[in-house]
Design a protein that fits this description.
Layout (H helix, E strand, L loop, with lengths): L1 H9 L1 H29 L7 H15 L1 H7 L6 H21 L5 H20 L2 H12 L9 H25 L4 E6 L2 E7 L4 E5 L7 H17 L4 H33 L5 H26 L40 H19 L7 E3 L12 H6 L7 E8 L1 H7 L3 E9 L7 E8 L8 H6 L4 E12 L4 E10 L5 E15 L2 E15 L5 H19 L8 H8 L1 H35 L4 H12 L5 H12 L5 H13 L3 E8 L2 E8 L9
Helix pairs in contact: 2-6, 2-12, 3-7, 3-9, 5-6, 5-18, 6-7, 8-10, 9-10, 9-11, 10-11, 19-20
Bound molecules: zinc ion (2 copies).
One zinc ion binds next to loops.
Length: 665
């Protein structure tokens, strides 16, 4: 315990800065993180998202030795400026994302970029290098849009069905492959019954695949060994998981065939996926160790054999860390932490809801039945229309887990206008609400006309999606406008926030009627409904002003991030060019050979350079003399002392600023 206290004392600066970064993310992204957890826990298939922060924490823990060293290094002004640019870039993505139909996705996407910025600003480039994988890993938190997911899933399901069918045919089972509403289906004949197994998107293993991407990249990263082999290990995982999924489908069919029942495929989808992923990850780890000779555990570094009287932090000969670096909080640190905390609290102060929060017009108590008078109070009466409550779809409520699924229609008084259908869906998670993307991606019987985003009200900005679709063989075209809100409801006498999705739908005969339908009927009705529901929170004027220039801000930040990075690259390129010139001016053959040796040593500690030097020149050199020569080269700018990440252990190396080929003169 005492050593723990000592550790905290030694590393207090690093720990304080790390805590500030965690605090900043929690403060800026607290709503998004809560929404993400809510969605991830709504079903088992996407619950892998919850594991990603845990895996990230482990990755950071594994790097504690190298991190505690590089994080104590000084930060340069260049790092700090780049850090500020990254942070501001992340915030503009956040703001611009709020004006799209997928605010949560864009917000989550900006978290890793925000982290890059914080790390560069408070620590330095070396720390970011050590943390680049754990932070980039967080991109996997971003939920993929359903459309993409279902397109890939649909293709995967088709091939899975064909392969499975070929295998059970080979087994001699009396089976046929058909499709049912575009979903492939394997039909097995038994003496007394016909069994149908539909290979749908959930069956395709798309969620297992996503979970697996997280696990296999994690596995490939923690393995020790050459990077090429680890990339092989990562990609070998994909055919593996696909094959395992086909085996899973085969097992369902064979079990169903021998037991004569259609097993609860629901159960198999939920648990089968996880079993698949763990099995796949274990096979990868095992196979990498046995076949690719990769290691899971790091080699232990032998302690420094050299004289202990050295006062340096690192041994100059073998590069080992000799004593812990203790840093005190500096004026520079304070002058960075203070404005950071100030800006973060300002952002928290002006924070706006991710989804427009509204108050339900009538006091609707969700735990009691919604009908009659109560039902019609949910939507406003609109001039020149008659509102009618059609019915409540309890079958859909039961199958999706929604709290309410209500159907209405606005009948126009003018004969020239068409009635507008309204669907009101209420649920505790966004994914429980009917998804149009999911619906269309799964069905090829529908032609989809271009969808676009429309802003319904200015403050708070509320973005709706509008599109048109036509069923194959039908003459009528459906025009749809829909949007999401969060609203307060009374459930069991407590107030709860729930997701609400409202869909307006009407019919036109020709695509050219779509603008008129949208502008004269759907959007005005949508506006009336949104106003009737009374948004609880408005955005502050300051945020709205920023938001007005969100696209310009985004462009400016993107350009400055790119400019800062490319100027760094350009400068190091020019620097190298001039160093080649310096190198060509060296007259001493020994000096040239030392530089050549350093350039060609993989882990260029003084010891290793000495042995390479011996190979190249056939001559021996005392370590002390070599280190002196290296220090001279350092003064000329040809060599830099650097902390190398050797299997997550810090090692002091002498890195040549330019690479010198073996046959160079
Ligand atoms: Zn040593
Ligand atoms: Zn649907």
């Amino acid at each position: 315990f005492k050593t723990f206290i000592q550790y905290v004392y030694d590393k207090h600066v690093i720990l304080i800065k790390a805590a500030i970064i965690v605090f900043a993310v929690a403060l800026v992204y607290n709503q998004d993180i809560r929404l993400l957890i809510n969605e991830a826990t709504a079903d088992a298939q996407t619950s892998y998202i919850l594991l990603i922060p845990i895996l990230t924490a482990y990755l950071i823990y594994r790097k504690r030795k190298i991190l505690s060293t590089v994080a104590s290094l000084r930060s340069s002004l260049q790092d700090e400026v780049t850090g500020v640019a990254f942070g501001a870039f992340a915030l503009t993505i956040y703001l611009a994302g709020s004006y799209t139909f997928h605010p949560l996705e864009y917000h989550i996407l900006s978290i890793p970029i925000f982290l890059y910025g914080c790390i560069l600003f408070l620590f330095n480039l070396e720390t970011l290098k050590a943390l680049v994988f754990p932070t980039t890993f967080l991109f996997l938190l971003t939920p993929l849009p359903f459309e993409t997911l279902y397109t890939i899933g649909g293709i995967m399901a088709n091939y899975s069905a064909e392969i499975t069918f070929a295998i059970i045919k080979a087994f001699g089972l009396p089976a046929t492959l058909t499709t049912n509403e575009n979903i492939p289906e394997i039909v097995v004949q038994k003496a007394d019954a016909t069994l149908h197994f539909s290979i749908d998107v959930a069956c395709s293993g798309i969620y297992s695949l996503l979970t697996f991407v997280a696990f296999s990249s994690f596995a490939a990263y923690i393995l020790r060994g050459p990077i090429k082999k680890r990339i092989i290990a990562f990609f070998a995982g994909f055919p593996l998981i696909y094959a395992l999924n086909i085996i899973r489908i085969l097992i369902i069919i064979l079990l169903g065939f021998s037991l004569g029942i259609e097993l609860s495929t629901e159960l198999f989808h939920t648990f089968g996926g996880w079993v698949l992923v763990f099995l796949g990850t274990l096979i990868i780890l095992w196979g990498s160790e046995k076949l690719l000779k990769l290691r899971i555990y790091a080699h232990d570094l032998q302690p420094c054999p050299h004289s202990k009287t050295q006062k340096q932090v690192f041994c100059e000969a073998c590069g080992r860390l000799l004593k812990t670096i203790t840093a005190k909080i500096s004026k520079r640190d304070i002058s960075k932490i203070t404005p950071l905390l100030l800006i973060i609290s300002l952002i928290a102060f002006f924070q706006f809801p991710v989804f427009t929060l509204s108050k339900f017009p009538a006091e609707i108590i969700l735990s009691s039945p919604i009908e009659g008078n109560k039902a019609t109070q949910i939507l406003p009466q609109i001039n020149n229309y008659t509102l009618m409550f059609l019915f409540r779809d309890e079958a859909i409520e039961a199958s999706t887990g929604q709290d309410a699924n209500l159907r209405y229609a606005y009948f126009p008084n003018e004969m020239s206008k068409r009635p507008v259908e309204v669907y009101v869906e209420i649920a505790d998670a966004k994914k429980k609400l009917h998804s149009w993307d999911k619906c269309f991606a799964a069905s090829w019987r529908v032609t989809l006309y271009d969808s676009k985003e429309v802003q319904l009200i200015e403050n708070p900005p509320l973005i709706a999606q509008s599109f048109a679709f036509q069923e194959k063989g039908s003459l009528a075209i459906n025009v749809v406008v829909y949007w999401y809100e969060k609203s307060l409801f009374i459930v069991n006498s407590t107030v709860e926030e729930k997701f609400v999705k409202i869909t307006l739908m009407s019919v036109i005969d020709d695509l050219s009627d779509r603008p008129a339908m949208e502008e004269e009927q759907l959007l005005p009705i949508a506006g009336e409904i949104v106003r009737y529901w009374q948004p609880v929170k408005q955005w502050s004027q300051i945020v709205l002003t920023f938001a007005k220039y969100r696209n310009e801000l985004f462009t400016v930040m993107l350009i400055s991030v790119v400019a800062l990075i490319s100027s760094r690259i350009a400068r190091s390129y020019l620097n190298k060019k001039s160093l080649y010139h310096v190198y060509s001016k060296i007259t001493s053959e020994t000096d040239k050979q030392i530089l050549k040796a350093a350039s060609q040593t993989k882990i260029p500690t003084a010891e290793q350079i000495a042995s390479t030097y011996q190979e190249i020149s056939g001559k021996n050199m005392q370590l002390g003399e070599l280190i002196e020569k290296l220090e001279q080269a350092e003064k000329a700018g040809l060599i830099k002392r650097e902390v190398l990440n050797f299997e997550d252990n810090p090692l002091l190396v002498w890195r040549t600023a330019i690479s010198i080929r073996k046959n160079a003169i």
